[in-house]
Known about the structure:
disordered C terminus, globular, alpha+beta, seven-stranded mixed β-sheet, 6 helices
Amino acid sequence: MGSRRSSNYRNPCLTLHQPWASLLVYGIKRIEGRSWPAPVRGRLWIHAAGKVPEAETIKAMEQFYREIYALDGITDLKFPEHYPVSRLLGCVDVVGCVSREELVKWEAVPRSVRLEGQTRFCWLCEKPQKLVIPLEMRGYQGVYNLERKVQEAAMRGLISVPPQPLPVKFPLANPGGDGFSVSSSSAMMSSAAAAAAD
Length: 198
């Protein structure tokens, strides 16, 4: 499957449990929360882990997103009909990474986005795309390189996701720069570097 851990990500992929994997690829989930900062910018492939989600978990997460979107006046979310497992589902663009403290104070983004920040680092995800036919494959922990032949097959099957009612473009202060903070603060960068070294 290629390198499991590497600073040289050619086709970076992240494995998530369901329903979070599909919610990200469908554009409902805009923040991917981690205890470590995003090691990549740009396309990140999303793979669904092999564990079949319980119906109660799916129901609870769909209700969570209904409730936070409702705070922005959105009541017509379109959830996935299925939550496949052990499959490559699609991709998102990681445009930056901020701390939870920065996200909750970031008034330039919708309130529902600010409420998604539940972990130390919040990866900012835009431009979701999904595979017409999800590809069966094995995943790994952390960010890893997708095997080239899988990536080539996936590129041929990608389609844009119909936009959700509240698509987000994150207004980063320095989109071409470090991509780690709203304000490009040195404190945030120091925190990210320390976490990466752990």
